[in-house]
Amino acid sequence: MSDCLFCRIIAGEIPSSKVYEDERCFAFRDINPQAPTHILVVPKEHIASCADVTADNAALVAHIFTVIPQIAAAEGLTGGYRVVSNAGPDAGQTVPHLHFHILGGRRMDDRMA
Ligand code: 5GP
Ligand code: ZN
Question: Does residue 8 have its Cβ closer than 6 Å to ligand 1?
């Protein structure tokens, strides 16, 4: 997906502040952070959103959810953190490549949005 922003970031064609990488996923700091720690975790395989998770790619998502607590620990988020994935326009998804926001370092609002 040469026209996908996050595929281009994963490929190194667009610079990013990388915090983690393995053979299946990539994590980098959000360019417009909404919390003191705001990291995006993305699969290297292009999946459009969490609405496109299927039995065939669910193991990749499960892998990402084993990486998220490692990143949170490395970032020192001992007080907790929030994981968000927006799917589609009503959720405000702006980049159509599956990503999980890790938000931490401040008290999150009680509301979910
Ligand atoms: P969404 O709104 O799709 O859930 O999240 C997309 C996120 O990507 C936003 O929080 C936005 O700030 C971030 N973002 C957009 N373009 C770039 C970029 O070029 N580099 C980085 N690091 N983050 C980006
Ligand atoms: Zn992509």
Answer: no
Q: How confident is the model over 50-93, as pLDDT tens digits?
A: 999 999 999 999 999 999 999 999 999 999 999 999 999 999 99
97 a catalytic residue: no
Q: Which of 30, 42, 84 to mutate to test the pocket of ligand 1 (most atoms within 8 A of CB)?
A: 30
0.85 surpassed by pTM: yes
16 lines ligand 1 (CB under 6 A): yes
- Joined tokens for residue 85: 């994935």
Tell me the C-alpha distance between 78 and 35, whole Å: 15
User: What's the burial of 22, exposed, middle or buried (CB within 10 Å: 0-12/13-18/19+)?
Assistant: exposed
